[in-house]
Amino acid sequence: MKMLLFFFLSIFLMGAVMMACGGKSGNQQSKAPEESHSATHGETPQEVIRVTIFNEYIHERENEFVRKIYPQGIHGAIASYMKNEPGFIVRTATLDEPEHGLTEEVLNSTDVLMWWGHAAHDKVKDEIVDRIQKRVLDGMGLVVMHSGHYSKIFKRLMGTSCGLCWREAAERERLWVVNPYHPITQGIGPYIEIPNDEMYGERFDIPEPEELLFISWFEGGEVFRSGATWHRGKGKIFYFSPGHETYPIFHNMEVLKVLANGVRWAKFHGNDQTTGIGGCYQVKEPLEKLSEKDYKTGVLEHPEEFMQK
Amino acid sequence: MKMLLFFFLSIFLMGAVMMACGGKSGNQQSKAPEESHSATHGETPQEVIRVTIFNEYIHERENEFVRKIYPQGIHGAIASYMKNEPGFIVRTATLDEPEHGLTEEVLNSTDVLMWWGHAAHDKVKDEIVDRIQKRVLDGMGLVVMHSGHYSKIFKRLMGTSCGLCWREAAERERLWVVNPYHPITQGIGPYIEIPNDEMYGERFDIPEPEELLFISWFEGGEVFRSGATWHRGKGKIFYFSPGHETYPIFHNMEVLKVLANGVRWAKFHGNDQTTGIGGCYQVKEPLEKLSEKDYKTGVLEHPEEFMQK
Amino acid sequence: MKMLLFFFLSIFLMGAVMMACGGKSGNQQSKAPEESHSATHGETPQEVIRVTIFNEYIHERENEFVRKIYPQGIHGAIASYMKNEPGFIVRTATLDEPEHGLTEEVLNSTDVLMWWGHAAHDKVKDEIVDRIQKRVLDGMGLVVMHSGHYSKIFKRLMGTSCGLCWREAAERERLWVVNPYHPITQGIGPYIEIPNDEMYGERFDIPEPEELLFISWFEGGEVFRSGATWHRGKGKIFYFSPGHETYPIFHNMEVLKVLANGVRWAKFHGNDQTTGIGGCYQVKEPLEKLSEKDYKTGVLEHPEEFMQK
Amino acid sequence: MKMLLFFFLSIFLMGAVMMACGGKSGNQQSKAPEESHSATHGETPQEVIRVTIFNEYIHERENEFVRKIYPQGIHGAIASYMKNEPGFIVRTATLDEPEHGLTEEVLNSTDVLMWWGHAAHDKVKDEIVDRIQKRVLDGMGLVVMHSGHYSKIFKRLMGTSCGLCWREAAERERLWVVNPYHPITQGIGPYIEIPNDEMYGERFDIPEPEELLFISWFEGGEVFRSGATWHRGKGKIFYFSPGHETYPIFHNMEVLKVLANGVRWAKFHGNDQTTGIGGCYQVKEPLEKLSEKDYKTGVLEHPEEFMQK
Predict the structure, then answer these.
(1) Three-state DSSP state, D90
(2) Strand C235-240 and strand C223-232: pairing?
(3) Which residue in A has a C-alpha nearest to residue C211's C-alpha?
(4) Which residues constitute the domain of residue A80?
(5) Is there a contact between A178 and C218 if contact means CB atoms under 8 Å apart?
């Protein structure tokens, strides 16, 4: 009982501190990114990364217990950490906002979108999903968290069911780093231990990850590919599984560090001039002179050579 | 002029032979697979593979030149080859048939679906695309040909735009085998040469192939990843680029051989008992005994350890 | 005590059965493959796969406990299972034989080589390792078991240290199938449970697997990528981790089934005509006519265009 | 209550430690190889990357024509470009130097090693190759150029023959970017055109690249996977094919830009605390309490369950 008291006290204090830090997230309208940018972080100019954190923001409003853990919403908890990352300009967006807070303008000024959803995946409008997908293919990074595995946008980009096995039993999870050279695992030890998490287990129906970063061990006997990356078009995608709404996982400093690493990794630094992204481009003039053809409409060079007998 | 005459003569003879062989494809209703199965191929029992060849079947009916090359339709040309492959049971399906010839019944009795489309990708109904995707995730193989790269089903499974660069100039194409250990490249030399093909060039907006099998060289100066594989759910996907409707590429014996190899490869031979395909499965009972928890709704084991300050 | 008795009784009976089955493996000279081929398996002609099982064969001779589990040696236990697989022609080879039983003749008539070693990796001669590597690049399959991860041949083919973390504490291991479409996981349930195994844990220093098939959960809190595939040249490689000498894991029917699947998968069925395997081949004549060059030794076409300023 | 006190105390101490070890990084001058470091590039502090360029340096000394193109040697041409890259500290090493200029000290202070060799691959001592491999597995990046594909170190890390097809005919080469999101292709157009290069053609006997960045088109009809990446241990490897000694390719600004991108990419930014790199580590104490075992030497828990019948 004392423990319970202590826990809520901590949460309360944490919330207070977060508010003091300016974490006025929640249902607010997305602001111009500059407003929430902490320019005070060091004199050395940092690469600017414009991060938008989407959260459906339902459990925190409807469930008292969840609200106590995330008084500012899951997006608020994440934002309060990200705002302190050098160069990060952070906005939030939630389901109830017009266009879910993900207008053309917001997405066009977003380098990396973070996504948390669970209870209302089907409430996300298809035209917004189309818009997000288009932006990802055009180079916007995407960091998908926990139950976001079953979001429309993640399924759309993966092409698979993104199903998995699960159990909610406050189990101990240990996320092992299996990829030591990846920037996303930088600054973490051989594993991250989370005292209580929802179990997510295999078989996780995703395309084979391009890079598998973390494998989770669960107390109840399962394993899970808990951190993985893919590319779609020019966009980089990072999925990271810890983070159920009934556990304070988005206050865990190691989890947040991995997510910040993920944001930095997901920002586009590639080739702006490639073609073939989003359309079929006719190239009328060949780069090399073609051989003489007697092949006009109806004329083949030597069809007899390769006909079926 | 002589050449032209010879060409049409060849086409005609070919058509005649195909009819004689029983190639009554075209707009016909999908038949029970058994009917078209050539059981005469050898005494040794073969693995049965039920192949359904989808073709939108538009150019061949509307364009005289195309019709001369493919008097039975592109699906008919492919079917006439596939029917002679040991163990293959071949059906065709076209856009105008009810449900595009791809009813639940047909798909449920299809091991591998081949796909050709070009002019009418948007005419393929979304609910049929949903159905195909579901079957692929459940283990049906998919072989996508040429302009099928831009079909709804391929884009759905890839998650990308599947755009590319193209030019129609009857160019020489040379498909180099870059994967020597793959069953799909079996029986082919170091490369396949096609005298006249539409140019398909990079950047081809696909997820990085799991296995890159062929790279094409084009006379006009481009290259293309022309043969590649992916997996989605339990399904295996092979894309192979040669095959424009105005060239007799689906009469080319090497191209057809690769496609037949692709069908054999795409048939599912994996694990039937994995879970996590198509849904989220709750696993109520852990496989291992969990440690004692004081974590019920509202109680955390030791939250102070991992809270943000 | 009763259990112990029962165990040794089982081992004894097993040995007897194996002898009855003709499992005269061990130190014997490698015989012509035909001798040990069970031709009786069904009337349907099977694809023939010539398997050679290498075992250093040290623990079983020096340690009484190990010998009781593997009276015919680990290679003998595996051979007794493989000999019953349709089409398999099985030989064994051990360290003490001349050339470790892996003469040019043996390797040239081997489709798939299985490898178990532990105590004497450094006793395997470099020239034999060279020979095996050459054969793998030329298409011989390789199935590496358990402590074989640290063998010269596996390290040679991987290019990495192949190090890992380990603990010998008879732990429960659960190998989860994460790749449902792969022939190697065929016929297995969602996981294999092994009551007692040596723990092998991450980080396993291997190149990112091309296909990750199994992930292991260990009672003591670790995870491991326990089944994975790679290709080198024309050769296919499968690593499977269960199998310590002090546990009867090579009598476990599920483990043996996976190994047999691995052998079938590792047999080469690819392209015999690709070049660029094992050498640098000069291609004197271009396939296409080159443009006129004024580039002879000492003459550049237009060097000024791309010089550094 | 005590717990609470302890909690706040921890927070306080943590903060103090953070401040103490906090912001002193960044602006300090790097020492050691600074000699060739151009400190003039901009006021913004750059990440320091210590690059060592190895060249066998034979053709340039023995062949007058080559010497005219590369009067400072190929390494000199590359170094003169790299020295102007912000943050790069550049050294060179050649075959004739003691230990080929690649002493323990040099390698230990090298972040990324570049490699060019052709005529004298076999003159590179095996112990130096061992040393380089060890450093790569420990996190040193490696950029292999052109004929370096056949070097001992590249073959060692790949595990394959690294053979290919080639022709020296001053052909036009066009390197197409197939990976638009990779930092190595940043700042380049859809392709790089090289007026005269040695043809390198498939099949290139390398393990399937983790990331395929460039595909080359050659005038004479071949294609080649000309830019690709792999990881080995903690080390990152980039192979880039243009660059024959008889062409001024290492004066081509686009080629040099790609190489500089490659160096930046290859520098390690990953996880320093993973184990299993370079050795087999015994983990005596399990992280979780093990179940009671009656399995001591000679005792199995329940062997009867999984014995072969």
Answers:
(1) strand
(2) antiparallel
(3) A208
(4) 49-159+226-266
(5) no
Looking up tokens 């735009």 gives B161
pLDDT below 70 — which residues of chain D? 1-45, 294-309
- Region C62-83: mean pLDDT is 95
Residue the block writes with tokens 């943000």: B308
The distance of Cα C59 from the centroid of its chain, to the nearest Å, equals 19
Q: Identify which of C189, C287, C196, C180 has the alpha carbon closest to the alpha carbon of residue C249.
A: C196
Q: Do B203 and D190 touch (CB under 8 A)?
A: yes
Whether a cis peptide bond, with omega within 30° of 0, leads into D203 is yes
* Contacts B177 to C, Cβ<8 Å: 271, 274
**Integer Cα distance of D177 and D214 in angstroms:** 5
- ipTM of the shown complex: 0.85
Q: Is residue A299 part of a domain?
A: no
Write out chain C residues lying below 8 Å of D252, CB-based. 306
- Give C216→chain A minimum CA distance, Å: 7
Q: Which residues of C touch B275 (CB under 8 A)?
A: 190
**Per-residue model confidence as pLDDT tens digits over B235-272:** 999 999 999 999 999 999 999 999 999 999 999 999 98
Task: List pLDDT tens digits, range B92-132.
Answer: 999 999 999 999 999 999 999 999 999 999 999 999 999 99
State how far the alpha carbon of C65 is from the alpha carbons of C7, C23, C41, C248, in Å: 11, 20, 35, 11
Residue B303 domain flag: no
pLDDT at D296: 54
Nearest to B201 among A161, A283, A293 (CB): A283
A180-202 tens-digit pLDDT: 999 999 999 999 999 999 999 99
- CA dist C151 and C139 (Å) reads 20
- The reply to whether B251 falls in a domain is yes
Rg value, chain A, Cα: 23
Q: Judge if pTM exceeds 0.90.
A: no
How does pLDDT run across A27-58, given as a tens digit for each residue? 344 444 443 444 343 444 579 999 999 999 99
Please tell me which of the candidates A230, A298, A303 has its beta carbon nearest to residue B65.
A298
Selected for mutation to probe chain D from C21, C132, C308 (highest D CB count within 10 Å) is C308
Burial class (CB in 10 A: 0-12, 13-18, 19+), D235: buried
Q: What is the dihedral of CA D260, D264, D266, D268, to 10 degrees?
A: 160
Chain C residues close to D169, C-beta within 8 Å = 286, 290, 293
> A202 vs C222: CB contact, 8 Å cut-off?
no
Distance from CA of A192 to the nearest CA of B (A): 11
Residue pLDDT, tens place only, B10-58:
454 444 444 443 333 333 444 444 434 443 444 445 799 999 999 999 9
Residue B179: inside a domain, yes or no? no
**Minimal CA separation from A33 to chain D, in Å:** 24
In a mutational test of the A interface, the residue from D257, D271, D275 whose CB has the highest number of chain A CBs within 10 Å is D271
Specify the CATH number for the domain of residue C86: 3.40.50.880
Q: In the predicted model, what is the mean pLDDT of chain D? A: 85
Half-sphere exposure in the Cβ direction for C72 (13 Å, CA): 28
Interface test with D, best of C232, C253, C254 (most D CBs within 10 A): C232
Cβ pair A137, B205 in contact under 8 A = yes
Cα distance from B26 to chain C (closest Cα, Å)? Answer: 33
Q: How many separate domains does chain C show? A: 1
